[in-house]
Amino acid sequence: MTADSLHFNAFIWPNGYHESAWRVVDDDVRGVLGLPYYAGIARTAERGLMDSIFLADNIAIAEYRVTHLPQTQFDPISVLSALAAVTEKIGLIGTGSTTYNKPWELARRFATLDHLSGGRAGWNIVTTITPLAAANFGEKAHPDHADRYERAHEFVDVVTRAWDSWDDDAIVGDRENGVWADRAKLHAPRFHGRFYDVEGVLPFPRSPQGRPVLVQAGQSAAGIGLAARYAELVFSGPPSLAAAVKFRAELDAQVVAAGRDPKGVRVLPALMVTLGGTEAEAKARAERLEELASPEFRWQNALYTAGLDPDAFDPDAPLPAELRAEGGSSRLQQLAAAARERPEAPLREIAAAITGGAGQVHFVGTPEQFADHVLTWQDAGAVDGFTIMGSTLPYELAAFVDHVVPILQRKGRYRTEYTGSTLREHLAP
Ligand SMILES: Cc1cc2nc3c(=O)[nH]c(=O)nc-3n(C[C@H](O)[C@H](O)[C@H](O)COP(=O)(O)O)c2cc1C
C-alpha cells in the first residue's frame, strides 16, 4: 500500500444524518433502539474495510428534538462494547465529555473497551457545547468555552497518565511463586492539578493499544489547539477545498509546534453523503429529504448546536444584542455573524441559513463522482479520507461500501484487506 492509502470513518446516527432520514427509510421507527440495527451497520462498515465506526454523545437533549428526530443517545461505550463482539477488525470510536466526566473513570471505560475489542478503541474528546448538560450533572453552571478547553487539556493529560499506569510487561503470571504482576511496573499518576486530583493506577493492566486512539473535532482556535496537542485523528474541516488545504497546513504547523509529527495525525472531515446510481437519482433522494425538512426544527437546532437553549428564545424576534458579539463556540460565532449582518431579521430567518450539526457539507452524486471528490481532496493535501455521514442509513453506507470502495481499490488508493488489527494500525499512513 502506498503512502496515499485512504482512510474512512463511518459516523453512525440513527436512520442517517439528515434530519428527515427517519421518515424515508424502511426502519420500523423503533429499530434504532435495538442492537441488530447497530450491528448491521458496523458489519457493513467492516465489509468496506473502513478504519472505524464512530458514535457521538449528547449528554443533554433539548426537548424540541424528540418531535423532529429519533432520540437514541445511548452510552457510546456500552454500544461499542456490544459491537466489539460482532465485529473483528474495525475501530470503535466513542465520544466522551471532558466537562462532565472524571478523567480516571473515563480512562478506565475506554481502556476496558480497548481490552474487550483487542485494541480497537478510540476516544473522541469533546468539551460539550450545550449548557443543558450542567443541570443533568448537578452543576450550577456550564463552564464557558475557554474554561472548558483549559480543563480539557488537564483532563486528557490525566487520562493518558492513567492509561500509562501499568507497564506493558507488568503481568508476570508466576504461579509457582504466586506473583501475578510486578508491582515495580506500576506508575501511579499521583496527579494534582488545577482541576483534577488523581492518585492511583487503573484497576487492570495496560490495554492492547496502551493508549486508545485520541480523536478531536473542535473547530474553534481552542479546539484546534487541543487537537494539535493530542489528536491522532481529526474530524473537523472547513467546507471548501481551498479552506480545507489551509486548515490542514495550519493544523500541521500547530502539531509541529506541539512537538509532534504531522504524519501521526489523520484528517477525516465529516461529510454528509447522498448517493444514487445516476446523478438524477441522487439529486431526487436529496431533494426528498430537503422537502421533508422542518423550518421549526432548523431554527431550534441552530440555537442548540450553538450552545443555546431554544426554549429561551422567541423565533420571531431578532437574536438578542448581547449574543451578537464575537467569541464563544464556532457555531455561536456563525450565528452571531449572521445576526450582525441582519440585526432586525427574526431569529428563524437568520437560523434557517445555518445548517445544524456536524455535517457542514452535503455531497450529492454518483459513486464515481464521490470517488473523484475524495481523490481530488486527498491529492490537494487537504484530507486523508472522510468521516462518512450517510444522509440515510444503512442505504448510503452500503452504497459507499459496494460502489465507491471498489472504484478506489481499482485505482490502488484504498486497502483490499485489513493489514493490522488495532485502530492505530489501521490509521497508519
Ligand atoms: C464529526 C464531529 C463529531 C462531533 N461529535 C460530537 C459529540 O459527539 N458530542 C459533542 O458534544 N460534540 C461533538 N462535536 C462538536 C465538537 O466537539 C465541537 O464542540 C464543535 O465542533 C465546535 O467546536 P469548538 O468547541 O471548538 O467551538 C462533533 C463535531 C464534529 C465535526
Record keyword descriptors for this entry.
TIM Barrel, Luciferase-like_sf, FMN, monooxygenase activity, single chain, ten-stranded parallel beta sheet, binds flavin mononucleotide, 14 strands, 429 residues, flavoprotein, alpha/beta, NTA_MOA
Word description of this protein:
The mean pLDDT is 94. Helix 4 packs parallel to helix 5, helix 8 crosses helix 9 and helix 14 crosses helix 15. The protein starts with 6 loop residues before the first strand and ends with a helix. It has 429 residues and is an alpha/beta fold. Helix content is 41%, strand content 14%. The protein has 16 helices and 14 strands. The strands form three sheets. Strands 11-10-9-4-3-2-1-14-12-13 form a ten-stranded parallel β-sheet, sandwiched between helices. A two-stranded antiparallel sheet has the order 5-6. Flavin mononucleotide binds next to strand 4, helix 8 and helix 12.
CATH topology: TIM Barrel
- The CATH class turns out to be Alpha Beta
Q: What is the first-to-last residue Cα distance?
A: 9 Å
Order of helices and strands: EHHEHHEHEHHEEEEEHEHEEHHHHEHEHH
Mean pLDDT: 94
* Oligomeric status: single chain
Helix content bin: 40-55%
Structural class: alpha/beta
Number of domains: 1
Low-confidence stretches: none
Strand order of the largest sheet: 11-10-9-4-3-2-1-14-12-13
Task: Describe what is shown at a glance.
By secondary structure, this protein is α/β, with parallel strands linked by helices. The chain has one domain (7-290, 358-427): TIM Barrel (Alpha-Beta Barrel).
